[in-house]
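Hi Y.,

Following your request, here is the sequence exactly as I used it, all 600 residues.
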Amino acid sequence: MNTLPAPTADDRAAWSHIDAADLRARADADLGTPWPQPLASQAARVHRDGDRVAWENPAFARQHRLSRAVITAAVTLDEQWIDEVVDGVQLLCEQSSWCWPAHDDTFDRHGSVLATVTDPFLDLGAGEVVAQLAWIDHVLGAQLDSRAPGIRSRIRHEAQVRVFRPFVERRDWHWLGLDGDVHNWNPWIHSAVLTAAVQLHERPDPIIDLAVEGLDRYLVSLPDDGAIDEGYSYWWNGACRALEALDLLEYATNRSRPDLAGLRETVAFPHRCHLGGDWYANLADGQARPPADLPWHALHRAALRIGDADAAAHAASHRDAVPSEFAGLGRLVQELTDADWLAAAPAAPPLPRDVWLPSTQMLLARERAGSAAGLGLVVKGGHNAEHHNHNDVGSFIVTSDGVPVIVDAGRPTYTKATFGPDRYSIWTMQSAWHNTPTIAGVDQSPGREFAATAVEASVTDAVSSLTLDLSAAYALDGLAWRRTAALDRAERVVQVSDAWNGRLSDGPTTLNLVVAGTVSALDDGIRVAPLDGATPVVIRWPAGIRSAHTVRVLDDPMLSDVWGERLTRIELDVSAHDRAWITVERDDATPGTGDSEDDR
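Below is the corresponding structure, written out as tokens. Let me know if you'd prefer a different format.
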């Protein structure tokens, strides 16, 4: 059996020429400073006040520091860097739990707010640590044996106790998908267990067989169009993890990969969500401007294998990205040593003119292929029990030059409430803070039955549109609400039209529009100067409809790093009407001012 698919540090032809100057500079700054230390009191905060990041931030920082040290040690073979790696490995081995406290079920099983070391929980965090240790063992095994004999045995002991044994003995893990609910945890953890088994286990075949069985459950759940209902951001830690696991299986065990339509098509999902520049359609728990430290080499490798030239070009458009430790050590090692990736020339992203994904009922349209210039539209149907669901049936995004103007706010910093019964108390999850109507004072409800119906997509050279009935997304009897969102290329306008079953008198009915940028009032609408200096737009609606504005000041970096200091919700009171529309047109005569200090 082969081990992991990258050269070891003994291969000086592969490692001695690697620069990674930025990463090594961060490693140099680490030397001699205290290692980050996640504390018990920080772990307990998950149960006290719901705070996850107090423990997670130092735990992640410890792993990132270790990854920087591993690369620097592999490049230099300097003993001080081998010692730095040994220190980091030992700290991980002595850490009470690798599980992220927000995931641990020890409170339910044992009444404890701290990890029960005799009953470890195998989650994403444990998977990330064991995979990191496996890659360290692979890359620097000989150097660890020379400098710190016994440390590799300690790694294997901890992997056995914290990962292999629980994986085999406890088969009620929710992420296995045995109940039919398969999500990104499945390939994320299975790929980590595979990595560790191949490298660290003396007899890995039974574990590999179980991992393959679990991965198969995820792979067959991929729809034929390759779409991910968890959204673009989670593609990287879902479908991409599955693709990487299949590569490892083929490399290490010569097992061939399955030929599934969804597997082939999902390689295209990232560029099908691309709006332009570093902006993406951020449905579900995504950020419209995702982090820059994504494993583009993994997408590039998958695209080459599948034969998708557009996906390969999209990945190669990020060829100049600075290597980062934040995507994980294994991904970093492969990014630095993948010959095809290193040889890839920067390319232009494909930016398809139209994308229709029937499994998630998402339509993306722009004025012309290959360019983000002009207006763009994203509109979705779907239902309100999607993974990482927001109550957003019928919501839409409008872009100018690829920059969102009418926006999906995205996700805030995760807390205990994010994935519990209080999820929809969070404003970013509520339909009133998406571009959807509030009908007779009622917002959308969560649940599979709250869904779009009668969905019809139409794509022509002149107009691309999605028409859908929103009635079932609201717990209201006798409602009929029809929405059509269209990009008219000939007229260079986006129009969203709504018609419903007469006046609703039980409460106010409003059309909600969440916008990013500087908002100015006009006689017949508003003007928005978007972020990034994109061309301003004018949003209009019928005369006689009153509007109000609510400014949401953003104090969460997960949101403010994307949108700046605020978002503005435009509320159109249509209580006295039975139909309404909005149009969005570019104000080409006036330069954009969206990149001012007030907006960033």
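Residues 106 and 557 are 30 Å apart (CA to CA).

Thanks again,
Q.
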